[in-house]
Specification:
Length: 314
């Protein structure tokens, strides 16, 4: 059972909790980072103490924002999960007690006393903005930058099927509050390092079409990634490369982040289920974009995911 967003706001305003540990999901992206750090600022504005924790390092592209958010070690704080659909998504903090949860993934299994989940939202940042408004906290320019970054990156620049009226309305409100859409777009979609370009070229060179061209898969094996010298945290959004080819129903990217340990990303056309495919590999996500993990070299895992997509296609 989940609460309404108004119930969640009321509890935060009237409850006894005044210290929070805010958890982002492992392999953090713009949405979990922007949502968690904007939430921290909002709770601080209410007089609460906060700290942000994540199993993995915050990618450098977000540090210019997150380094501006005050933090302190908080003992006995209430756990607050942001943008994570399962305890496992919290990585090394999977066993942490969670009292509050806000998320936009279908089938959220995190147990929390106060929980708000809206799978219809295109990003968690959209929900956190709505929560902050209900808390009566002024959205500062830094909050707006964080939340707009989460919204823009999770919708791939407002190009995903989850983008809707509420997404664009929230974006407009965040611009009014001080977010700079042109600068954010340039930073996350218009500027790439040479190493990133080399990694993208390696993925394109590995393209393989199966099932009469309806399935496109690509790999970035461990040897290639280490030769290029790119940090795994600098590969956010690279999975979109397989989502750009006309006629493809399933796009797969397999990244071997350690020897014989792979991360899987699946993109699905409307009406197909990427989340069901990834559930077979211990993962999940959205209907049209999901992820998972598997043991094995990149080519072996590629074949397994292709087979799972073929089965979903029927």
């Amino acid at each position: 059972m989940t609460n309404t967003i108004d119930q969640l706001a009321r509890q935060l305003l009237t409850g006894e909790d005044k210290a929070f540990t805010i958890y982002s999901h492992k392999r953090p992206d713009g949405d979990t980072i922007g949502s968690a750090y904007a939430l921290a600022l909002a709770l601080q504005a209410l007089g609460c103490r906060t700290q942000n924790l994540c199993s993995d390092a915050i990618p450098d592209v977000y540090r210019r924002l997150t380094d501006q958010v005050p933090a302190e070690a908080v003992e006995g704080a209430a756990g607050f999960s942001v943008d994570a659909s399962t305890p496992e998504r919290l990585g090394t903090y999977a066993d942490a007690p969670i009292r509050y949860c806000i998320d936009h993934h279908e089938g959220n299994t995190i147990e929390a006393a106060y929980k708000y989940v809206d799978p219809g939202a295109s990003s968690c940042a959209q929900l956190v903005y709505a929560l902050i408004v209900r808390l009566g906290v002024e959205v500062t320019p830094l909050m707006a930058e964080l939340l707009y970054t989460g919204l823009a990156t999770d919708t791939n620049g407002f190009r995903t099927v989850s983008t809707n009226y509420d997404s664009l309305q929230t974006a407009a409100e965040l611009v009014r509050c001080g977010a700079d859409p042109a600068a954010i777009a340039k930073r996350h979609f218009g500027t790439k390092s040479r190493k990133r370009m080399d990694a993208e070229q390696a993925i394109i060179d590995s393209f393989r079409y199966t099932h009469d061209g309806q399935i496109l898969s690509a790999v970035l094996d461990y040897e290639t990634r280490t030769r290029i010298g790119i940090d795994p945290n600098a590969l956010e959004g690279i999975n979109a490369l397989v989502d750009q080819v006309e006629g493809v129903q399933f796009g797969i990217v397999v990244r071997e982040y350690a020897p014989k340990k792979c991360r899987i990303s699946v993109r699905a056309a409307e009406g197909l289920r990427a989340d069901l495919v990834c559930a077979q590999f211990g993962g999940g996500g959205h209907r049209n974009a999901a992820g998972g993990e598997a043991v094995g070299d990149a080519e072996t895992v590629r074949a397994l995911v292709e087979a799972a997509c073929e089965k979903e296609l029927g």
